[in-house]
Design goal:
Largest sheet: 4 strands, antiparallel
Strand content: 35-45%
CATH class: Mainly Beta
Number of strands: 28
Order of helices and strands: HEEEEEEEEEEEEEEEEEEEEEEEEEEEE
CATH architecture: 7 Propeller
Radius of gyration: 24 Å
Distance between the termini: 33 Å
CATH superfamily: YVTN repeat-like/Quinoprotein amine dehydrogenase
Shape: globular
CATH topology: Methylamine Dehydrogenase, Chain H
Length: 385
């Protein structure tokens, strides 16, 4: 009798242990694939809440989801834009989105857009039913193709425009990324030092100027006053007055910086080729209220080219890049761990963009229509043979 009770108790404990282990495994967030149904290059992803989000990519691709990515619905753009490359997307709420793209002039040889901007900005309203093209600012034609040199940190505009040349901007410059501090204040950046700002939720834009013609790859708005931009040649720009003046920072690299992200005003990161990783750290605030920030190179977490970085807190963050690279840190970027278990996809997927709502919920998108979600996910149970 005692033996039978012992056997029953052992079985009960085994069931409880298995249930507990399986429950913990089901709750642990992991990266898993979501089906897109396309093989296009996906370049932008943004969610407004755990259920509603958008993805943008090449050949006019815009996807929307209302169930956290379990299914993705293709959104129809106007005919002229249906084959263009869409580089970024921003979601204000479930009813309003911005999509940023570029015009392929070979597709429109007789169009008047040949003489206009080389990029487009569309706003979607009323649950994807209505898309409107947004006017963006045109760069002014310079009086001279040779700009006046400026000291580092000096705004390229002066109080006396008769004595000062505005820095040259090519009118067909491409805009490649955008970021918003809130529902009203946002920035666009791109080729030839292009910077534009909106203070009305993307419905109108104005040019801003910094002394650089470099390609600006990414922008991050810490607030409506403090914004960071990174780009070619190791370019790092900062404004603390909403873009009235842009200060070029001392950069520890001359390599192309592809993305930038700040966890708060004191801690930021930037990434680039061959695992390049930069860390921005603020020192003690000065008497005038300014916060000095110094950039340093951290040990490369990988040899792969890194395309994006996203930090949830000053300690925890992610980087993503070529050959399906997704790395995770919990110590501010000093050490990293490979986070993607699906090694088979390393042959054909390059991740381009990351987005997180919180530390247990995020997405990564890339080439070959790749969409990966980071969330608590129950592993599939293998059938017993």
């Amino acid at each position: 009798m005692r033996f039978l009770r012992a056997i029953l108790l052992l079985c009960l404990l085994s069931i409880v242990a298995w249930t507990t282990i399986h429950s913990v495994a089901a709750q642990a967030p992991t990266w898993f694939k979501q089906e897109s149904g396309v093989f296009t290059k996906l370049m932008g992803v943004h969610f407004v809440d755990p259920q509603n989000g958008y993805i943008a990519g090449s050949t006019g691709t815009v996807f929307a989801t209302t169930n956290g990515g379990a299914t993705w619905e293709k959104v129809a753009l106007p005919v002229r834009e249906s084959k263009e490359t869409l580089r970024d997307v921003w979601t204000f709420n479930v009813r309003q989105q911005l999509v940023l793209g570029e015009y392929n002039r070979d597709l429109h040889p007789s169009s008047d857009m040949i003489f206009g901007p080389n990029f487009m900005l569309w706003r979607g309203d009323e649950m994807k039913e209505d898309w409107r093209e947004i006017s963006v600012a045109e760069p002014r034609n310079p009086r001279s193709l040779k700009p006046r040199r400026k000291a580092p940190g000096v705004d390229s505009r002066s109080d006396n425009e008769e004595d000062d040349e505005e820095f040259f901007r090519i009118s067909s410059s491409m805009v490649v990324r955008m970021h918003f501090a809130d529902e009203r204040n946002g920035w666009l950046v791109g080729e030839s030092g292009m910077i534009q700002r909106t203070s009305i939720g993307g419905m109108g834009w104005t040019m801003q100027y910094a002394v650089t013609r470099k390609l600006l790859n990414d922008v991050y708005a810490v607030s409506d006053k403090e914004v960071w931009i990174v780009g070619g040649g190791g370019t790092i720009l900062r404004t603390t007055d909403g873009g009235q003046s842009w200060v070029e920072q001392n950069s520890p690299t001359t390599q192309n910086l592809r993305a930038v992200h700040f966890a708060n005003a004191e801690n930021g990161w930037a990434v680039g080729p061959n695992g390049l990783l930069l860390k921005a750290t603020a020192s003690q605030r000065r008497p005038d209220g300014t916060l000095p920030v110094k950039w340093d190179i951290l040990p490369a977490p990988t040899k792969e080219n890194l395309n994006d970085v996203f930090f949830i807190s000053p300690q925890e963050g992610w980087v993503a890049g070529e050959h399906a690279t997704i790395l995770h840190t919990t110590d501010g970027g000093r050490t990293w761990a490979d986070a993607l278990e699906d090694t088979e996809v390393r042959r054909y997927i390059n991740f381009n963009r990351l987005f997180f709502l919180n530390r247990t919920l995020g997405w990564a998108v890339g080439t070959s229509g790749a969409i990966y979600k980071f969330a608590p996910h129950a592993p599939a149970l293998k059938p017993k043979v």
